[in-house]
Amino acid sequence: MSANDDITEVEEVKEVDVKQMLELQVSEVEMLTSMFPNPGELTMDEQTSVINIRNFLAGKIKYEYLHSRIGFTVKIASEYSDLGKIVVELVCNLPHDYPAVAPVVFTRSSNMNRENHRRLNEDLYSYIQCLDRGEICMFLVVEWIQENIKNYLTKDVSAERITSNKDKREDTVFTRVWIYSHHIFSKFKRRDVIEWAHELKLTGFSLPGKPGIICVEGYSCDTEEYWQRLRNLNWKRITVKEKEECDIGCDDINIYRKFSNFEEKTFEVRGGKGREYHMDLGKLYEFLEKHGCGQVFSVYFGVEGKVADGQVAD
């Protein structure tokens, strides 16, 4: 089933003063730390990320050696007389050029069913897109969640948790999604692509370079969440090229997988300079054929693939 209507296009951001952006990020983390001082309220992905950025700002390391990005999780707790204590985890990743670009955020919560959780993340994404770029906004994001979370909950929280588990258990749709990006170069994006797939128990592969290709397969709810997270990153262009779906009932999902795990693939580089590298599409086609997916090559590139001489038809 084609999914050409499911497209996100994000224009590349103009060059910004990264040093100024990182100074703002450090000050924002300090502010959030003071807002959430209790153990477990704010957890950094990498404890050394702020230290490394401070070293860069102090001129101790060059930008090309700055391999850290600020990422953290905030546990936002709200108390309601009719619902009790509700906890939402806000997962945040800050690109180096944030706040000139939007932060990458999504939520986790055991207090709502899958549909309400999807709406929460979509509405949060829309809210962030409306904020002014160039100004830190995580406090506003936290405030928005605190003010709006009740709209995504039911009065019977215990029933809601049961429903959430039921949704997960009764998802009988196997989905394979083929994603096309103009390019995938960023080490941070490459890390997110892999780690999110592992977290959501998806199999498939990613191909960095130009173009960038990602395939994920698993239960529909997990592939949908993966796509929602992925499209929130800053891309020049990213598209779902194809979506395959089938109801597997009570069958073992592993029967339907074409890939045994999720991994990043790299093939022989041809052409390009510096990081503008292109993968060998002939070897990509050979890899797809090996996994019974050769037909998707023409979906991506509009031509039939060939492996006889290692080249691809023009």
From TrEMBL:
InterPro entries tied to this protein: Phi-like, Prp3_C, RWD_dom, RWDD2A-B_C, UBQ-conjugating_enzyme/RWD
A Pfam family that the UniProt record links to this protein: Prp3_C
Ranges where the RWD domain occurs: 27-152
Name of this chain's protein: RWD domain-containing protein
Natural source organism: Potamilus streckersoni
Organism ancestry: Eukaryota, Metazoa, Spiralia, Lophotrochozoa, Mollusca
